[in-house]
Amino acid sequence: MNRYKKLGWNTFIIGLGSMGSKFMIFLLVPFYTFYLSPSEYGQADIIMMTVSILVPIVTLSIADGVFRYTMERASKKQVFSSACAILLIAGLILILLTPLLKNIPMIQHYYWLFLVLLLVQLWNILFQQQVRANGKLILYSVSGLLMSLILLGANILFLKYMDMGVTGFLYANLLAFTFNTLCLFFGAKLYRLFSFRSINRPLLKKMLIYSLPLIPNAILWWVMQVSDRYILTFAIGIAANGLYTVAAKIPSLLSMINTIFFQAWSISAIGEKLKQNDSFFAGVFTLFSSLFFIATEGIMLIVQPFAGTLFSAAYQDVWKYVPFLLIAVLLSSFSSFLEVSYMVEKKTKQLLFTSLKGSIVNVGLAVLLIPIIGILGASIATLLGFLVTWLLRMKQVKFFRQLEHKTTFWISMGLLLAQSIYLSFIATPNIAVQVVFALGIIVCQGIVGKKLVKFVRVSRKPSEEKKAW
């Protein structure tokens, strides 16, 4: 199977499962806005975000090492067993620290649910990475689809019929993640890979050298995505965080697609040890960026009527915060595309420094802008943080010279930024102006249309792959 076909097939299979669960989360946003107040939604979001950032810290990000070294054809049993040893120790430490959770203001009323959610997600992330590295993508997808159905049913039961509020929200997520974890464990027969005798200290040391720099990188990436919510909560109130959370769910459509593609892209890039000067690398980015420009513009056009139709009255104005967040997700997606290059070369320390500089910009601007312009300040800070990160990675991997269609690329970026400013600061956007922006994007990306045709041709004729780009 040629490289483009393989990437497309992996993206499709992973997308079947991931898109189901992630799209379900997006579809549940209107449901949450009707059954959770802004304060409740803000509280629930803070808890889930805290769990997500603690996972790489508690596990030493060992799941990333599992994926990388399994893809490198190391002994699966030794890789998996060594990682499990880390998680067993981490779980024991967490249980011993349980009394401390009662004193943390944001989670003290839900501390035991928080602990169980965290423990389940530790293993869930590890099993996902192992299953993906083993190439069992159909199991990965089916378990994701089933998880999304359980999440839907549990939310309806706990929020609509039992009116359990934040507790019901957490129960629904716990039930869904527990099912997914067990499904992966037994479906892939991962129990066959674990043995205390297979724990390999030298291999574990190599895995940790690779994964440890990814801990601060994950934290800093989280800082750029989530720190604004904490600053909003303390500066304005938890209700403001609830509004911002709903606004961020709309661009999450793009983020979902990027996450799916990143998983498939990392399999191709690491498996084939791609270099950034490979024509395949540049060609895929051209297609990827073009599709994301069009998708971003599409969401820009419908964001106002969409919010007015689906969200309850308390959330009607959240659409104003979406445009800048859309650009932030676009830049985040471009950054994650280049992240694979660091993973291939195992240069995770350099990856860390790009995230560090971007997060400093993000937090600094958030602290400065939120007290002045409120929620909109958080959106702008996030955008600029991801912009800095992306530009630094472009420079480090010397990708500027590899960028196809530079003129149309930068014009498209400028048009989307101008449209974001227009939508965020105009009370009632003019449809005609919106259409002008949309036409500009369509014209720019239409130039890339010939590349799409060549992409299809290359998929059928592998021998022409290098010539196509």
From TrEMBL:
Q: Read off the PANTHER family from this record.
A: O-ANTIGEN TRANSPORTER-RELATED (PTHR30250:SF11), PST FAMILY PREDICTED COLANIC ACID TRANSPORTER (PTHR30250)
Give the domain of life: Bacteria
Keywords per UniProt: Cell membrane, Membrane, Transmembrane, Transmembrane helix
Q: How does it sit in the membrane?
A: Multi-pass membrane protein
**TM stretches of this protein:** 12-34, 46-67, 79-97, 109-126, 138-158, 170-191, 203-224, 230-246, 282-303, 324-344, 364-388, 408-425, 431-453
Quick one: where is this thing mainly located? membrane
Gene Ontology cellular component?
plasma membrane
The answer on whether this UniProt entry bears the keyword Oxidoreductase reads no
Compartments annotated for it: namely:
Cell membrane
Q: Which InterPro entries match?
A: Poly_Biosynth_Transport, Polysacc_synth
Listed Pfam families: Polysacc_synt (PF01943)
Origin species, per record, is Listeria booriae
What's this protein's name?
Oligosaccharide flippase family protein
